[in-house]
Design goal:
The protein has 313 residues and is mainly β. It has one domain: Porin (Beta Barrel), CATH 2.40.160. The protein is built from one helix and 14 strands; from the N terminus they run H-E-E-E-E-E-E-E-E-E-E-E-E-E-E. Strands 1-2-3-4-5-6-7-8-9-10-11-12-13-14 form a 14-stranded antiparallel beta barrel.
Length: 313
Amino acid sequence: MKFRILSLLLLAPLFLMGIDEDAGTTGLTFFKVNYSARAAAMGNAYTGLSNDASAVFFNPAGLVQLSRMEATVTYMSYLDGINCGSMAYAYPLDEKTTFAVFSKVLSATEDKTLVDEYGQYGGTDGSFGFSDIIFGVSVARYLLDMLDMGINVKYLRESIDGHTATAAAIDVGIMHQTTSKNLKVGIALRNIGQQLSYYTSEEYEENLPTIATVGFNLHPKDNLYLTADIYKPLNYDYTGRIGMEFQPLPLLALRAGYKTNAKDWQGGSDDALSGMSFGLGFDLSEYKIKLDYAVVSYGDLGYVNQITLNYIF
């Protein structure tokens, strides 16, 4: 029987190549996948920007930038029929402190395939289920004129074919306003934690997918953001990410991004777009709503679509 599921604070040169962000042998590996159509369209180069409620998934220190309550909901149609979603609600307590709550879910179901002793196909036998869920709370605090800090505390639960493991983890982030008013630097360390329960009674412990990122946000004009991230899963290679957001009209934003690990998804007819992402944002201020859409190319594996709805209170 077999089945298939696709599966600190560092400074380093930006132009490094690496591995697929979703690959690796750590447990709970899908917790590395974040959902935000705006960030996805910008290549997930979001650590130095993070100026909306989705900051909880990238750099919680960015929450200090919010001046009003904000709720965000995202749906992502991932590869191989995997469905994902997230929500976050951020509440600025005052000019220096912001609280947030958030959740992420991922689920997939497929048929179990039977094989005989010779490796020949033997039909199917029921279905195979896989799911991840995260619940968390955040607090972000202004520390100095040039420094904000944020922290997430979260509970993680993964279920694979009826076997469940749980973990507790924290994310820590800082946001630094440089001496240039147009440049911010963000640093985040995510998924630092400990497994609480195990898939089997043998208590085989899985390593959490700890990730360090450093991000740069250049904001030379009111309608333009240029972003770049260094992304480093611990024990794996670096990758670089770049993103752009241009707002030609008050109600419209155009976005694009690229990840340097595009070669991990090459090998077919869609190689030219591998690693690239594109998106649109619509600012419907009259209704206190922002709507974002993104499409991300994974080369021969296909395309991933995300849509996010933000409500500004």
